[in-house]
Design goal:
By secondary structure, this protein is α+β, with helices and mostly antiparallel strands. It contains three helices and seven strands.
């Protein structure tokens, strides 16, 4: 097998302001693994992160950003198994962003996700599958509640 590479990616904590407080959008993953996550995705070669955020948000939810906030949080993780649609890719690096949206109709990418929920912070923390996403959510939630 050839050299495995690490793909550049973004984590997008999507939120909306409601009368009941901040609600976060989580998606039920079905491609590659099963569980709950927030929108994320790879950055194409030569693509700026801001464009990747807009593209991934539109592809996975049909939504457009009102505000994009960049965070210093970065990380890397390895895939548990090889993904057939990502040959020679061993994992991803990520940079954290928070994106405020209007609560509109969600149009899921049915290939990647089977469901979505708007939830408060504690419900999101209980539902999210991966520790790195829970850590990112804590950072965003702390900043939004200052």
């Amino acid at each position: 097998m050839g050299v495995k590479k690490i793909r550049r990616a973004i984590f997008i904590v999507v939120y909306t302001q409601t009368k009941q407080g901040i609600k976060y959008l989580i998606l039920k993953r079905k491609l590659h693994w099963k569980g709950w996550e927030f929108p994320k995705g790879g950055i194409k070669k030569y693509e700026l992160r801001r464009f990747a955020i807009r593209r991934e948000l539109k592809e996975e939810t049909g939504l457009k950003p009102l505000k994009i906030k960049s965070f210093r949080k970065k990380g890397v993780y390895k895939y548990k198994k090889e993904c057939l649609d990502r040959p020679k890719v061993a994992g991803q690096t990520y940079k954290l962003y928070a994106v405020e949206v209007e609560k509109k109709k969600i149009i899921l990418d049915k290939l990647e996700h089977s469901d979505f929920k708007w939830v408060g912070f504690s419900d999101a923390m209980k539902k999210l599958t991966w520790k790195n996403q829970k850590d990112c959510l804590k950072i965003v939630n702390e900043k939004l509640n200052k």
